[in-house]
Amino acid sequence: MLQQGLDQCLDGPDRKVTIAAIEGELGKVLGLDAKAARSALQAVCKEVAASVTAGEIAEVRGQLPADMRELFRLAS
Fold this sequence. Notes:
Layout: H1 3-7, H2 19-30, H3 34-51, H4 54-63, H5 66-69
Helix pairs in contact: 2-3
């Protein structure tokens, strides 16, 4: 049952998913301007990072494009 869904992932990451694309979709769906959408994305990422271990965030960061890594900052 999972095979078809997994086969779609073989091409690698979707390069169309960018910070700007995520912010644009947040703005559209939530009715936010660009600044508010950026703040919302940063707040969500901050909460996700606070909800898991530093090791898990490091693993996530390691799988993201360089520009997206800053969304999940490591605790200092």
